[in-house]
Amino acid sequence: MYILYTVITSLVCFLILKWMKRRRYCTDVKRLDGKTVLITGGNSGIGKETAVALAIRGARVIIACRDVDKAQKAVREIKARSHNVNVVYMELDLANMRSIREFCTSFLQKEKRLNILINNAGIPSVLDWTDDNFSMCFGVNHLGHFLLTNLLLGRLKESAPSRVITLTCDNYKYQKLDFQDLNYNLLPFFTYCRSKLANIYFTQELARMTDGKGVTAYAVHPGYVQSNWTCHFSILFRILMQVIMFMFFVPCELGAQTVIYCAVSDTVTDNNGGYFTDCRPATLRPFAKDPGVAKKLWEASERLVRLA
């Protein structure tokens, strides 16, 4: 009787976990031949899986990250898995404004098209600072991508129709922005939440500013994914999180599906500036849909990154 009870309990737990980890696949097989895609942090995790999927569809894929060795290894893997040799790497450090500006200058010289920009790279909840004295989460997750997108916006307009996809997270709902202290760096988790909320406001304001100019923008919550974000923490924490991620988080391939969906689907254009998860539009908390706050954040970000 005990054995039967154990088996039934285990089966129920397995089915519950399987249900919790369910995700939709992007079934749109639209080709991207002749299109150029730029993915920040495309050397691992969701970024790499997205790169493979879009390369399979025929796109020229550029992955931008700071680790040369990892990037070169990722390029070889993406080429092999996608059977597409049109995959390259460019060096970019989103924690350094000079690096971002140099990257954009080089990109604009080399690349005549930019059809899809995927702001994928991100820093988890860490107490650290960028080279320009911004909190690491806010500096990389929001300001770095804000500057990158703005410096490439002209090329995106020239390549219209084009898209900007920015990865965020549903934990945005646990914090609100404090314009007296945007560079907040006291409690790591709250700092991360604020940076993800900033990603949402950025997407909304970008969509408003480029409305009718051939550029659309989308914020994507990929779900909770078994990526390598724990590398920033202690070994003990990593071991603990590996167990939790195995039980409750989804593989990177599944996490990339909504990003891929927003990159290729024609239906998403009806939700310009929208928030997506599980390959469909999702509802935001009311405070995260305030156009006044989005505009105020945009203007504050322009001053912080010294964007003329």
Automatic annotation (TrEMBL):
Keywords: Oxidoreductase. SUPFAM superfamilies: NAD(P)-binding Rossmann-fold domains. Pfam families: adh_short. GO terms for molecular function: oxidoreductase activity. Belongs to the short-chain dehydrogenases/reductases (SDR) family. This is Retinol dehydrogenase 11. The keyword Acyltransferase does not apply. It comes from Alosa alosa. The keyword Oxidoreductase applies.
